[in-house]
Amino acid sequence: MKNNLNNPPIDIKTLSGNKLYAKIRVNGHFLAGKNVHLYGRRSMSTEKDGYYLVTPFQTDDNKIILVVLGWFAGRHKKNIDNIIDNSMEITGVILPGEKTKLFVLDNDVKNNVWFTLDLTQASDVLGLKLEDFYLVMEGNNNRSDILKSLSIENLLNVRNDHLEYAITWFALAISLAVIFVIYNLSKKEIK
């Protein structure tokens, strides 16, 4: 993945084999009025409480790819849909679609608040035949102060808190064991 992100982008038409995590260049135009607001996971932005703007992009050879354009604060949700340039060349990294997980809320399609970028569901809701991957756009092609561009370098910084979680649960288990022993000893003294 690191090599793909550091290499120059290749034209999507020349891409073959495993496409995931490839850095590509593609020409086409955005499809207005079909935006998805993906609730603000902060893995690619230092900001809080917002959304990723995800918009369908129709390539010059008529394929439709969902593109993550950037991140915006929640207060701009009502006026974010009018800032997209139409025809352009974009560069980005191909990522796989997501599947709904057990402990993640269902997408609120009515209010356009998505928690999982499920490409099958997006295809149904948007009424488009989407490709089986999405693209995270590199750089600031959006020319807007509202929409913050994303750095694809952050894709390399995958957060792994498993050790912290394990230590926390271990400490809680020890604490409960100590409380259990103290409670039972105090019960014996009362008798």
TrEMBL record:
Topology term for the membrane: Multi-pass membrane protein
UniProt signal peptide: none
Recorded superkingdom: Bacteria
Transmembrane segments: 166-185
Gene Ontology CC: one annotated term: plasma membrane
InterPro entries: Surf1/Shy1, Surf1/Surf4
Pfam families in alphabetical order: SURF1 (PF02104)
Keyword Phosphoprotein: no
Localization annotation: Cell membrane; Membrane
Keyword S-adenosyl-L-methionine: no
PROSITE patterns, alphabetized: SURF1
Keywords attached to this entry: Cell membrane, Membrane, Transmembrane, Transmembrane helix
Annotated family: Belongs to the SURF1 family.
Protein's recorded name: SURF1-like protein
